């Protein structure tokens, strides 16, 4: 039977608030999808009592900072086809909310085994059959999963240039990298751009958004794989971060 609380707060109130928040950002969501989004949040907050998954412990804040923030990527992800990969999923954000909204295969990846296992427990409990999880690093996963994904998403994982390098070998031709960033400096954007030119990706869009209730600033940056890389990818584990291409 469905619990009537989420993280100790009344579910009916959170459900109402979530509906308002999503509507205010133009995200269409059914009652069944909201139920799953709140189920996931409850599982995360329970698990967070025994392992470090998130520093956001207030369910009200998590509605904005986890659920809505993840779904700000939905419009861009919906423009792509084929499987979606979430690199560095942590507690399942943004991958699980996106998988709740999109009827297509997802893979949620984290390099930390206990996080990948926690996320697998969440998707099992939620009955998300089309969602796989893997404990892997993006660089090593790309060796055996070249060109498999129509979209790669990432939030709070690595600088833009590093993400462009991680995503390139994993994407199919025409596939897109959709990244959520807080403040994005000109320097980080510049290095993303130079990396993209080297690896056969092009910047499609950059959108700036404000979260409700003054809870932050977001940039949604989208790249498309439109050519071949001039460098053999993936490079060995750690090189994208330690020896960036730009
Ligand atoms: C700051 S957390 C963000 C988690 C989640 N995306 C979110 O926004 O709440 C970054 C996560 O990325 C994972 N990570 C970092 N580099 C990675 C890589 N190369 N491949 C896979 N996972 C990675 C870390 O283990 C960590 O769980």
Give a short summary of the structure.
With 246 residues, the protein is of the alpha/beta class. It has helices spanning 11-24, 31-47, 59-71, 74-77, 95-101, 113-126, 138-144, 160-170, 186-199, 239-242; strands at residues 5-6, 9-10, 84-87, 106-110, 131-135, 149-155, 171-181, 201-210, 217-225.
What does this structure look like?
- The protein is an alpha/beta fold.
- It has one domain (63-242): 3-Layer(aba) Sandwich (Rossmann fold).
- It is 43% helix and 22% strand.
- The chain contains ten helices and nine strands.
- The protein has helices spanning 11-24, 31-47, 59-71, 74-77, 95-101, 113-126, 138-144, 160-170, 186-199, 239-242, and strands at residues 5-6, 9-10, 84-87, 106-110, 131-135, 149-155, 171-181, 201-210, 217-225.
- It has a seven-stranded mixed β-sheet with strand order 5-4-3-6-7-9-8, sandwiched between helices. Strands 1-2 form a two-stranded antiparallel ribbon.
- Helix 1 crosses helix 2 (31-47) and helix 2 (31-47) packs antiparallel against helix 5.
- The chain is globular.
- Bound molecules: S-adenosylmethionine.
- S-adenosylmethionine binds next to strand 4.
